[in-house]
Amino acid sequence: MRWLPAALGLFAGLALADPAPTAVPNTLQFISEHPVEGMPRGNLSGLAQCGDELWAVSDRDDDRIYRMLADESPGSVWQATPEAFVVSGAPDSGLSWGMRTRVLASGLVRGGALDFEGISCDKAGNRYVVSEAYAGVLLVPVTGDPAWLPLPQSLLRQARASGLLMSFNALYEGLTIDPDGKTLWLAAERQRRGLLRVRNENGTWKCDGNCVLLSEGGVAMPPPELGSERALPIDFSDLALYKGKLFTLERLAHQICRRDAGTGAQEQCWSFAAGALAPERRYDLPYGVAEALIVDDKGAWIGLDNGERARADGDARPFVLRFAAPVGGWLGGK
Q1: CA 270 to CA 277: how far, in whole Å?
Q2: What distances in angstroms separate CA 287 from CA 33, 115, 146, 169, 225, one per listed residue?
Q3: Long-range contacts, 138-142 (Cβ 8 Å, 24+)
Q4: What pLDDT, on the 0 to 100 scale, is given for residue 107?
Q5: Which of 232, 187, 193, 93 is nearest to 149 (CA)?
Q6: Are strands 219-220 and 204-206 parallel, antiparallel or unpaired?
Q7: What is the dihedral of CA 39, 41, 44, 48, to 10 degrees?
Q8: Sign of torsion, CA 128 132 133 136?
Q9: Does position 77 have pLDDT exceeding 80, yes or no?
Q10: For all residues of the chain together, what is the average pLDDT?
């Protein structure tokens, strides 16, 4: 039981909640939808705005990211153009031998051994891609070879001491980085879901005290349009940073929530269920498929990882949905 005092110490100042807060979100106005072509294996799992360019990742592709030729005209088709690279090995993030063995087996069966689940970029244009399978972050620079960030070994220990990253295929599901490339936030997906933060000090990534900002468990009912008969685990499926605030994409609840970037505390939520779950856009699934988020002045881009399933109108391509910013902007209603 020598681990107990240390584990308890990690919870000091940590926001814990179980079950999840019952916020009543406002509704975001749906603007347009855009099917994506050029991602042969689909599974759009992350989006990022890098200057004037949009980038995407698929959790079935280990050797490329995609530049999106995006047209905001309603109904326009987006073209994904791959940028290929070579990844050297897998990161040593501290995962157990058993977990790594399951990752290898899963990758052989479904493809996408690294399971890229999110992408972000700094103001220099460097891309950062999170691997859920190995709980690591790959730096894809503007020039040069990709490299795994040397994240601190204490990151995984602290996460697990707070109940995060305990289940296979429920590790990091999203990330975002500040423009200077000095502070990185990671989203733990579910059972429990959480927010983590590391900082780069003189080339060394550190926890700066407690890496875990938020850890919370619980279940909730999906929106009634999905017809689910049971509550499911609450989740995070991506992160975005906008004007110093952290925004979480909450797939089950079909909402975007603004949070304090320093504590992870929830401030305001907005629902996108009405637009995403219009009859023709529904998938025959009891949960959501929203996995990619960009927040900007005009609104939000939400990418759907449909797992190659066709939606109600028969279209099996990945889609990106556009929603207008709330009245008063994302930072209103403080």
Answers
A1: 15
A2: 20, 20, 34, 16, 10
A3: 138/87, 138/91, 138/114, 140/65, 140/83, 140/85
A4: 59
A5: 93
A6: unpaired
A7: -50
A8: positive
A9: yes
A10: 89
Q: Which amino acid is at 181?
A: G
Alpha helices per DSSP H over the chain: 3-10, 97-110, 154-161, 273-276
Q: How many residues does the chain have?
A: 334
- Per-residue pLDDT at 143 exceeds 60: yes
Closest CA to 194 of 219, 211, 178: 211
Nearest to 80 by CA among 34, 30, 147: 34
Q: Which residues contact 258 (CB under 8 A, 6 or more apart)?
A: 245, 246, 247, 266, 267, 268, 269, 330, 331
With vertex at residue 263, the alpha carbon angle to CA 261 and CA 266, rounded to the nearest 5 degrees, is 80
Instruction: Select from 2.20.28, 1.20.1300, 2.120.10, 1.10.150 the CATH code of 27-323.
Output: 2.120.10
Contact 128, 177 (CB under 8 A): yes
Q: Which residue has the tokens 């850890």?
A: 215
The string of pLDDT tens digits covering residues 194-220 is 999 999 999 899 998 899 999 999 999
Q: What is the per-residue pLDDT across 13-61, written as a single tens digit (0 to 9) for each?
A: 454 545 444 445 699 999 999 999 999 877 899 999 999 999 999 999 9
**Which tens digits make up the pLDDT trace of 12-26?**
445 454 544 444 569
Measuring CA to CA, how many Å separate 233 from each of 56, 224, 236, 251, 296?
Answer: 26, 16, 10, 10, 28
Q: Look at residue 146 and give its three-state secondary structure.
A: coil
Tell me the C-alpha distance between 6 and 281, whole Å: 48
What are the angstrom distances between the C-alpha of 148 and each of 117, 272, 314?
15, 34, 39
Task: Report domain extents, the chain.
Answer: 27-323
What is the per-residue DSSP string for 196-232? EEEEEETTEEE--S--EEEEE--EEPPPGGG--SS-E
